[in-house]
Structure to design on (72 residues):
């Protein structure tokens, strides 16, 4: 059963893609899903689209924006 990565921003940033790949490698079945609206994503082995029929083992928040950028 895959984990679901929440708030995936882009795979075109190699640092983000490396984080996603690391999370996939630590997943029990080396698979993760995410919702990603990107025209030309970088391939991350084991990362696929969210399937409505599958309940994830866990959901992992990966978005750093709210932590790195100040908000009013």
């Amino acid at each position: 059963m895959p984990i679901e990565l929440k708030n995936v921003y882009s795979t075109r940033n190699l640092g983000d893609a490396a984080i996603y790949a690391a999370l996939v490698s630590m997943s029990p079945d080396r698979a993760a899903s995410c919702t990603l609206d990107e025209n030309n994503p970088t391939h991350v082995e084991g990362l696929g689209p969210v399937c409505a029929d599958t309940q994830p083992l866990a959901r992992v928040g990966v978005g750093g924006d709210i932590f790195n950028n100040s908000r009013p």
